[in-house]
Task: structure prediction
Amino acid sequence: MATIRIGHGYDIHAFAPKRPLVLGGVTFDTDYGLDGHSDADVMTHALCDALLGAAGLPDIGHFFPDTNPSFKNIDSQILLKRVVAQLHQRGFTIGNVDISVIAEKPRLINRLGEMKIILANSLGISAEDIAIKATTNEGLDDLGKGLGIAAHAVVLIEKSKL
Ligand SMILES: [Zn+2]
Result:
């Protein structure tokens, strides 16, 4: 018997000039990035919060506060690996992951495969257990005006009953 738990995470970051743009661990060749204390990888942050939420733990800001200089510009895959370690310590294994990213720019479709490989490595699961959908906000609201990028993530985790 296993206990199955679900978690949801959401994150949003505004665009900022002359910052690296990192999404799902993939760096894009753009002259703009996302504003933030870490590398501002909005997809990976939403994923971290989904995992933490599924485990009933506090959010990413609790574990990695932006007041801590050691997290300045940190690679969010390091944060994700630490979140996965937190779950493993509590006896959870990760089932599948489903991420939606909302971005008017850049074009993401050709990079989703790379993101899956990087995220699968950080999560310790197969890339086949990761889904990523890229969409736009159809010109509506601030996301649609291209002011930033948002991401939602849903995860399923399991704990085996001893
Ligand atoms: Zn974030």
Summary: The longest strand covers residues 2-17.
